[in-house]
Amino acid sequence: MTEPRDLVEKLLTELPDWLPAQRWFAGKDRPVDSVRPLRTTVLLDDPVLLHVVVEVEQADRVEAYQLLVTDRDESYEAAGDAELTGHLLDLIVEGREVDGLRFAHEPDAELTGGLRGRPITSEQSNTSIIFGSQYILKLFRKLSYGPNPDLVLHRALRKVGCEHIAQPLGSITGDLNGEQVTIGMLQQFLPDAVDGWAMATTSVRDLMADPEAQHADQAGGDFAAEANRLGQAVATVHADLERALGQQDADDDDITATVRAMKARLDSVATMVPALEPFVPALRDAFDKALDGRGAIAVQNIHGDLHLGQVLRTVHGWLLIDFEGEPAAPAEERAALKSPLRDVAGMLRSFDYAAHQMLVGQDEDALLTERALEWSRRNRAAFCEGYAEAAAESVGDPRRHGELLRAFELDKAVYEVAYEYANRPEWLTVPLSSIARITGEGA
User: Fold this and answer.
1) Residues in contact with 172: Cβ distance below 8 Å, sequence separation at least 6, in sequence order
2) What's the whole-number mean pLDDT along residues 354-383?
3) Residue 360 CA from chain centroid, whole number
4) Fewer CB within 10 Å of terminal CB in the chain, N or C?
């Protein structure tokens, strides 16, 4: 049997090269300068299962990550070991504490242990493990100090009986440098669920298969009815969050600070991406017009990173998942109260992405571009109409706040420009064309 200390010491020598190859590692944009161990918890002796927290230094950035480590695999990665990850579920079922790591189930949650785990292999910023057809455990790979918004908001929504979430069932928490950290969250697993991005892009493919013979409202896979239902679900979640955690009026200073942050992001991204420079004057003008929305809307807890990949369609309706907020944002920013219009803007941007994803890397085709715009406009309108039907009075129809909603959408598009430039240059045309269209047409 390998001694835990020896295993960790050997692991540390390999992490600077191993970490950047992991899909959940957020620091792929720069080399790893050093990796230091912060704490090691022995969860099993034989076979060895360790929970290790390391501090990763990259230039001026220092972040903490969690690892599940075993000596049963050459990569030391234990997240894919069905037997070892099953032990995590058993600890939650039993409500155990192991050397400061607290495994707990939610009040009134009736859980079954003894299940093997299997990881989800798709790209994501965390690691999720499925147990049978009942549970899913999300391990937050990059750790943030303080309560994780995903756990906090799920608990709040559960208390008010929200029907549009996967129910939280348990958690793993601990302490790091004297502050609480959320290690993982156990939730209800819904095996029949389909994510919104898959449904939306299937609809687009149906339309593009015969663009000369049909318009967006005629395609067999028309998505507008689902977009409307999704708008209702998002509005209901916003209303439930308001009911559970309250809201407050956004004062003039809040809106001014928001616009200032939009302009700061714009200046930073325009310096990095020359293709954005021609749009800077129109973007700054659009952000200035958002100042007219001062005092017009309240702020509250929201999803914070809403798009079609963050929603699931089950036989019973739409669910929202992953309430962490933007993964790259600081913890205090993710926990801050914001306008629900930010979530609306994020979903509107996602409809635009779904509409144009088949055109990326292809020769320009005027008819396909026209159909993509038709699909996007039809589903954006349906989503807003659905949202207006179920929205709390404090928000109502998001289109009533036109300049502010437009500013939020453009700010999101500027964020997308930076992301695509750094990660997927071939996709850069999607946010840039949207910025050109929105600033040019006011659409």
Assistant:
1) 88, 91, 92, 101, 102, 103, 104, 139, 182, 183, 184, 185
2) 93
3) 23
4) N
